[in-house]
Amino acid sequence: MSRAASGESVFYLQPGECLLTSEPLRVVTVLSSCLAVTFHDPVSRLSAMCHAVLPNRRCRGRYGEHDSPYRFVDEAVARLVERLERHGVPRARLEVKVFGGAEAPASGRRLGPGMAVGRRNVKAAFDAVQARGIPVLTSDVGGRRGRTLVFSTCSGEVLLKRQAGEEIKPQQGGAQP
Fold first, then answer.
1. Are 72 and 53 in contact (CB under 8 A)?
2. φ and ψ at 67, to 5 degrees?
């Protein structure tokens, strides 16, 4: 970990990892087709974030049976909501935000139906969050370029920088593209 100019520690979240903390951190991650979901409780200041790689374990077949649950969008959301509830955070207080899910085909080729991992990750995230009765406060998903996120665990604020190229308009109210 390093220190930001604000004095907060900086934590780099890698693919397949999650973080649950009440410590003041700036959590940084870089996304392309992967998905990040942030959770923040403004009362307890408990925050969580996952960087999931695939929509679900079935995508890996028998190879995924030993993978961390945080590699999969559906399991990561379910586990983090459960962990937050065990810490006394009711779902109604959670501020949830969803980011990522870009589609970046190699050399301008069209993606086949089974290759649209970014879109499937986005759908899995919205389905998993909505199945738990939690609204998505905001989202920035899809497109063809990756994103760098900086999540402040103190405030729940997310700073987003899109990689050079296509501009993507943020979706207000967590609307899916």
1. yes
2. -75, 155
Query: Dihedrals φ, ψ of 73, to 5°?
Result: -55, -50
Residue 133's CB is within 10 A of a number of other CB atoms, namely: 9
Torsion sign across C-alpha atoms 90, 92, 95, 99: positive
Task: Output the six-digit token pair for 84.
Answer: 């937050």
Q: Which two tokens stand for residue 75?
A: 């399991």
Do residues 19 and 79 touch, judged by C-beta distance below 8 A?
no
- pLDDT, tens only, 73-127: 999 999 999 999 999 999 999 999 999 999 865 545 554 555 689 999 999 999 9
Please indicate, yes or no, whether the overall pTM of this predicted structure exceeds 0.90. Answer: no
Q: Which two tokens stand for residue 73?
A: 């969008």
113: which residues sit within 8 A by CB, 6+ positions away? Answer: none
Domain 13-172 sits in CATH 3.30.1330.200: yes
